[in-house]
User: Fold these one by one.
Assistant:
Number 1:
Amino acid sequence: MVRTEISLFLKNVPGELGKLAALLANANINIDALTIQDASSYVKELFQARGKSLKRIASVASYNSIRKDSSEYALIRILVDHTDKAIDLLSRNDYLFDIMPVIAIELENRPGVLAEISNKFGQEGININYVYGSVSSPDSKCLFVFCPEDIDLASKIFAPEST
């Protein structure tokens, strides 16, 4: 199912994630999925991708400087149960964020299921930019979030009735 992921940068200091989580909780917004990475890793990935495409927009020195500065931030990606409400709340509280359509799929918690879904993307020629997921117990289903290069094709293939 297509969902809207919110990506935002937070200062990489103690307490920032707690502030964000409390802000959402106080507005009765539940976080369904979350991943965090050092923002310098994100900048490095951008630099490497641009280097492969030969469309680099800044020098290596510039990117190294940006990467150093970006280590002060973390890239947070979240799915929430009330996206529009969260977007409004983040805007009113001066958070810088972006939104991206992603595919969120509940998977059976058994060996091979992730392989089946990932292979389905591959068989359809859809590259996966990133994925994250988790399981709360052996008897629970898993929620996995996929960011495919072709969201339109992926949304047709992974419509709720086809998973």
Number 2:
Amino acid sequence: MWQFHTTLTSEHAYAAHPLGWIVQWRPTSYYYPPEVSGLTGQQAIDACGAASCSQAITSMGNPVIWWAAAAAALVALVWLLRFRDWRAGAVLSGIAAGWLPWFLYSHRTIFTFYSIAFTPWVVLTLTYVLGLVLGPRTDDARADRGRRWATFWVGAFLVLVVLVSAFFYPIWTAWVVPYDFWHAHMWLPSWV
């Protein structure tokens, strides 16, 4: 079993190097049925109200969360090295334990969805850094004003996360949608 899984090197269109997992560089398309996604003409108009349709399930996380978390991991690393904050080390240890071993197997066929093993740690790292942005509560009026601004920006970020989640929901759950709607969700060429 070990031999098979460490030497599996068959080509696959959605194979993804682990380096790109943290930024969702090459998500896996789970479902894109030609009987719906290939509809044209009146059949497409009946199915999705457009000249062509798409129906997809893609293993792509919320890009705002993943992109911000990639930056947060760098901030946490700096915080660990500069301030020796054990909390930074704790959240980064989960990412390291779940992600770094895959680099030893990057020669084999692997996929972005394997990042599910360290996804909770990605979110915890982002949460840790958002906590740094907020800063501690104090009785200092000037610091309190800065914390209110930080709270505003963190809140705005969280609203953006929710909006982007709502935007991607049809692509995560196989809604039948117009092709142009589906294509508007493919922000990077590597996502198609």
Number 3:
Amino acid sequence: MNNIAVFCGSSNGALELYREQAFALGQELAKRGLTLVYGGANVGLMGAVADGTLAAGGHVIGVLPHFLQDREIAHTGLSELIVVESMHERKAKMAELADGFIALPGGPGTLEEYFEIFTWAQLGLHSKPCGLLNIHGYFDPLLSMFDTMMDQQFMQAKYREIVLNDTGAAALLDQFATYKAPAVKTYLKDQTQT
């Protein structure tokens, strides 16, 4: 594993703790020799995780659509900035570059990015780890929803195991190192999941 994509908010959130932990994640990635792949902006938690990685001597690849670069939010201190045409291209490029994915607290865009990559893992389109850095219990409701999906038989238990989570960056990345992807999703003739 070399490159970790991080999805997170372009805002700092209500608590300084979110920014502190985003910065700490960046430092942990650099400490482990992992490259950060992220959305390329200098604002919010996006800027914090990039700054943390760079401050610790790490490598950062940003992937930013033209229209956001034009709004002058591009981080100017990155190791590499890849400018693409659209949000779809941004997500595809990040997925191509990444060996694993972490979501930090964020809004609808963060969740959309995480759910797409999680769905691809469930369908067997990739076997890369997908983690939630659960700062201050931010993802507790989402983790509960995953349990509800499983309990109500809309998600198999083996796919619930795709959702790696921890409250600390080091512990979450330790889980990445031992992650084994589940078998590809299949269906029986009566459409019962297997």
